[in-house]
């Protein structure tokens, strides 16, 4: 998932990178949206077992809300707007990945606690 996001967010890592073609952008956008659709419910479920007063829960659920909001928006037809849209999706996906890892670690610590 992170590699898909990296394709749009880190164009400087590949020398002489060209902007994606319309077909490449459409394919990548669909892939990113699919990743969000899979990961958002997982993060939400993991966050909901955290006590309501913990910042970890609040932040993760805010990110899930952002993901669902991005998914409600249809990708624009213009290429430059489509790239901007896909980059926003990629940033939310990266954030969800971070929350997933943090929540997974949190749950492992709680299970193996004192």
Tell me what you see in this structure.
It holds the Pfam family DUF6415. The protein has 4 helices and no strands. The protein has 114 residues and is mainly alpha-helical. It has one domain. Helix 2 packs antiparallel against helix 3. The relative contact order is 0.19.
Radius of gyration, Cα only, in angstroms?
Answer: 16 Å
Number of helices: 4
Largest sheet: none
Distance between the termini: 34 Å
Query: Uncertain segments of ≥5 residues (pLDDT<50)?
Result: none
Structural class, judged by helices and strands?
mainly alpha
Describe the structure concisely for a colleague.
This protein is mainly α and 114 residues long. It has helices at residues 2-9, 22-48, 55-72, 79-111.
């Amino acid at each position: 998932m992170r590699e898909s996001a990296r394709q749009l967010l880190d164009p400087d890592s590949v020398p002489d990178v060209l902007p994606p073609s319309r077909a490449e952008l459409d394919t990548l956008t669909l892939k990113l949206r699919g990743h969000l659709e899979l990961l958002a419910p997982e993060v939400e479920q993991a966050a909901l077992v955290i006590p309501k007063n913990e910042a970890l829960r609040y932040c993760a659920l805010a990110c899930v809300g952002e993901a669902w909001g991005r998914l409600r928006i249809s990708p624009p037809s213009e290429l430059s707007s489509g790239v901007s849209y896909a980059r926003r999706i990629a940033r939310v996906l990266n954030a969800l990945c971070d929350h997933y890892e943090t929540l997974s670690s949190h749950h492992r610590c709680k299970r193996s606690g004192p």
